[in-house]
Design a protein that fits this description.
alpha/beta, Dna Ligase, domain 1, 3 domains, 15 helices, extended
């Protein structure tokens, strides 16, 4: 291909190796224009490609005013049906290219059978239209399915962000935040707060039944530890639940359990001691060398406030006493080595 003018469309921040290899092998330093593919320039500049063709990413919206026939080749990443609903601009550009008989290669990186090391297929407008038709069929299937009601359990910024993302989907008709917060209350549109702020298992199950919700996402640790996922799976087996079971949530609930698990599984972790008796913890502290730093952690859930980093053995004792109502875990404080001095400083 001589004096190639190539558009790379819709790959986002992950460019498959076979696409990079294909572009790097094109002769005569092709002009490459990425659309909605911000990682392309940096990826091509790295070994083994080292293609330093000056390229700058353009947003997908620019495709609406771009003539596909100005390119000698288009390489397009087929979106998922869900992404297709969020923005159909890239697909419309690819369809226009195929209909104008512009050489186009469509890659479905979302397929379970996709091999990023395989040779790219030949450019084929006809096969590209077929792939786009399959995407349209998937979108039509989604549109013909009644949109779902989703419950998001939690009241933090994390749950707020989850609710906003869910509300963008054409598959979702309403997002109920339980209990939600002031931010979710003011979102409007599909997002609402539950009238009952009770997070007990029975209350969430009752809310799921009364709203005919088909998906429940559980964010906070406490409901997970309390077995909300297990209770929903038992009471409403047809409802999908996103979140770990109580058994899996024990990794978050108990630092002592987690440290024991890591050690038994051979997973690298800092050395530690666990105490349930304040006197035993005090005796352990007395045996420590003065330069031995430890972190003191309350074993159970502590709302992000269960970690103490004392400076002296006396502070370690005081920290152990302050969390004595929990199981106390003493872990070695791993500090990075000091930075070497600069050459100028050494001289």
């Amino acid at each position: 291909m001589s004096s190639a003018n190539v558009a790379v469309v819709g790959f986002g921040t992950r460019i498959p190796a076979n696409v990079l290899s294909y572009l790097a092998a094109l002769p005569e330093s092709p002009t490459i224009t990425p659309f909605a593919s911000p990682a392309l320039t940096l990826s091509l500049s790295r070994p083994p490609y080292r293609l330093l063709t000056p390229v700058s990413n353009s947003p997908a919206n620019d495709l609406a005013t771009t003539d596909p026939t100005t390119f000698s080749l288009i390489i397009y990443s087929l979106p998922t049906a869900a992404d297709y609903f969020v923005s159909s601009t890239t697909a419309s550009f690819a369809r226009s290219a195929a209909l104008s008989n512009t050489p186009i290669i469509i890659i479905n990186t979302n397929s379970n059978n996709y091999d990023p090391t395989a040779t790219l297929p030949s450019a084929s407008p006809a096969e590209s239209l077929s792939a786009l038709a399959t995407l349209d069929t998937s979108a039509a299937t989604i549109l013909s399915t009644p949109p779902a009601v989703v419950i998001v359990v939690g009241s933090g910024g994390r749950e707020h962000a989850i609710a906003i993302s869910l509300a963008k989907s054409a598959k979702v008709s309403r997002v109920i935040c339980c209990p939600g917060n002031g931010g979710t209350q003011s979102e409007g549109g599909k997002i609402v707060n539950a009238s009952d702020s009770n997070l007990s298992n029975d209350s969430v199950i009752a809310l799921t039944k009364s709203t005919n919700a088909t998906l429940v996402m559980v964010g906070p640790e406490q409901p997970l530890v309390d077995g909300l996922v297990d209770a929903l799976n038992k009471a409403l087996p047809a409802v999908k639940v996103f979140g770990p079971t109580a058994a899996a949530a024990e990794l978050e609930n108990s630092k002592a359990f987690t440290k024991d698990f890591l050690e038994s599984a051979g997973i690298r972790t800092s050395s530690y001691k666990t105490f349930t008796d304040a006197f035993q913890a005090e005796e352990y502290v007395k045996s420590l060398p003065k330069d031995h730093r430890v972190v003191v952690k309350a074993s159970g859930l502590a709302a992000g406030k269960g970690v103490l980093i004392p400076e002296t053995n006396e502070e370690v004792s005081a920290a152990s006493q302050s969390v004595a109502s929990h199981r106390v875990v003493h872990m070695q404080l791993l500090t990075p080595p000091p930075r070497p001095s600069s050459p100028s400083a050494r001289s």
